[in-house]
Design goal:
363 residues; Neuraminidase; 4-stranded antiparallel beta sheet; 13% helix
Length: 363
């Protein structure tokens, strides 16, 4: 029976049954699970050791190690770490980040999105509320950037460049009082670093702008404005070293831009009846290019990991990941970071509720 016919039967049954939402989800999962998936799920990598700890995100280094950002609120005083793991989940190394952050950059419990990115050249970028740092592979701090200062300087320069009449009509640059400036997504190419910034007080809750930097965190340039990513997250990837790919999750689509911010194309749609589309509230929330060029997507709330061409042709399922469902526990954010191993054999996704990493291995 086709997926569409199953949905029709499901809808008819739903008229008569009180738990039609749960039934609909169960039937839909059964149909998806019956599809030929390229990967099977391995035992979960346990990252969260204590209920009071907070795993903000995870990412992959250029040599295939996993790294997770963990706030140890179970300790007194609280500490912050970046922990590195083998592909199988064995702890390899821990960076204590607590002393690298002045008090004004404290990591607030449950309120601070953190982004990690490992560049192809081996640099590691760590982003938090108001700041961004670049480290080498050994953990030495190379550069750091204050977003608020950068935005204030840009506003002052723009204000100074306007005519006297326009200046009188605009609020002074000092009026840009952002509560927080946090990274919503981060990626890099050989020449540039791209960061999507979410600014509380500077726009609607789900709006982000993309800035392009040199790899040394200089030469900031806003190249894309007013993207829509739920819960201050919008995933970024680079393609062919000359294109920027953005998962604009609240609009259920993938956008492709030049590195100057010119839109080249977009694809994707919201759908609760077609596996090719994106379901739940805001998806896809995670994207990653595999070594063979396929775009792998992860969906919050429904646990679907799927394969597409860069142009949007649906290629099939990677796996239906057993992530914690919305009705079982309410996640604090619509966010599932995803990574593919350099040998293209494994796919990793972070469960947004349990904060542990699911591992899928190619069959």
């Amino acid at each position: 029976m086709s997926f569409q016919r199953v949905v029709c039967v499901m809808a008819l049954l739903g008229v008569m049954l009180p738990h039609r939402a749960a039934l609909a989800q169960a039937i839909e999962d059964a149909v998806i699970a019956s599809m030929a998936a390229t990967h099977e799920e391995l035992p979960t990598i346990t990252i969260k050791q204590d209920a009071a700890d907070l795993v903000s995100t995870f990412a992959m280094t250029s040599d295939g190690r996993l790294m997770a950002s963990i706030s140890r609120w179970s300790q007194e005083p609280a500490t912050h770490e970046i922990v590195f793991y083998s592909p199988e989940g064995e702890t390899l190394e821990t960076w204590d980040m607590t002393e690298k952050m002045p008090p004004r950059r404290n990591w607030y419990k449950g309120k601070l999105p953190v982004m990690l990115h490992g560049s192809a050249e081996g640099d590691i970028y760590v982003g938090g509320a108001g700041w961004l740092m670049r480290f080498n592979a050994e953990g030495d701090l190379l550069q750091e950037l204050d977003y608020r200062k950068m935005l204030a300087e840009a506003a002052q320069a723009e204000h100074a460049g306007k005519s006297q009449q326009d200046q009188s009509e605009d609020p002074p640059p000092g009026a840009l009082a952002f509560k927080r400036v946090v990274p919503a997504g981060i990626t890099s190419s050989a020449a540039y670093l791209f960061v999507a910034l979410h600014m509380d007080g500077g726009g609607t809750r789900s709006t982000q702008d993309v800035y392009r930097f040199s790899r040394e965190l200089g030469e900031p340039l806003r190249i894309i404005e007013n993207l829509r990513g739920c819960c201050a997250h919008i995933d970024l990837e680079t393609l062919d070293n000359d294109k920027l790919v953005v998962a604009e999750n609240t609009r259920f689509r993938i956008n492709t831009y030049t590195f100057a911010g010119t839109l080249l194309g977009r694809w994707g749609k919201r759908s609760r009846t077609s596996i090719e589309g994106f379901a739940s509230c805001c998806n896809p929330v995670g994207i990653c290019f595999a070594p063979d060029g396929e775009l792998i997507t992860a969906s919050s709330g429904v646990g679907r990991v799927k394969r597409y061409t860069p142009e949007g042709e649906f290629l099939g399922m990677v796996a239906l990941v057993n992530v914690t469902r919305w009705e079982g526990a309410i996640p604090g954010k619509c966010y599932i970071p995803i990574e593919v191993s350099p040998d293209n054999q494994r796919v990793y996704v972070l469960d947004e509720v349990t904060q542990n990493i699911h591992v899928m291995k190619r069959r």
